[in-house]
Amino acid sequence: MDLIVFLGILSGLFLAIALSEPLAARLRLPVTVILAAVGIGLGAAAAWFFRTDVTDALNPLALAILNLPISSDLFIYIFLPVLIFQVSLTLNLRRLLDDWVPVLVMAVVAVVVATFVIGMALKPFTPLPLIACLLIGAIVSTTDPSAVVSIFRATPAPQRLARIVEGESLLNDAAAIALTSVFLVAVAARDAEPNIGLALLQLPWLIATGAATGWMIGRLAVQLMGWMNPWPLAQVSISFATPFVTFLLTDQVIGASGVVAVVAAGMTMNFSAPGRISPPALAQLRDAWALIAYWAGGLIFLLAALLVPRVLASIRPADIGLIA
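RE: above sequence
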């Protein structure tokens, strides 16, 4: 892809993110809805301009949009660590501990129950093995409550309710992705019907090892940032590298849950940094992460929505029935 065209598309995406906020406020809709609508519109327009004979002038731009390298790896290895780390870095951990029971029930117990309910309900309608149905259940068992949290913050909703939803959104992603990893390994084994109980026994190891690895990396990062108090931008750079190092080391080298490790690293930095980093530098670090997460969150919705017209082009009636 031509570099100039790519930079033009990237600039357009950032402009769409910026304009979505005032548009959402005017229409009284969540920003995520506007971003998804814009992404679907861009994807559909690019496909239409490329296939129509109305004009050929926009064909290079349309083709560049259609050929954007959007894959699951982009979301898992770039955007996911950023968003999870930023939330864990800004949570009020002391207040969250007051509500740890409802948070864990909704984030862990409810996710496991939803995974099995969805998997069992899907099994009678598809020739897929049960382990594949459970894999689908783990993928769709959680929702992204960012729009709900933003509404809570903009209205007189109880702060405790918003805090519980924030904590649940952080930990339910970790639980669902850990379950997904377990089932994915079982499916990749190509057994006719893998032992689901044996696969689930790996879950505690994935979570415990991931948490321990994240805690150690988080402690090391805070120690390194403490030595660099005269250089706040260097501290921000270290914090930016932390989620990616944590995720890649845990997921690719150790084989544990990278998401749990990133959560643990972010919480460790959240808890330990105030004693080692000066208050102005800490405020600057959190502001920088708020901006990074703002960009990442917007790009996720835009890029994922760009794929919707492409996916719907090959949908079959049977797929609509399974979704229903």
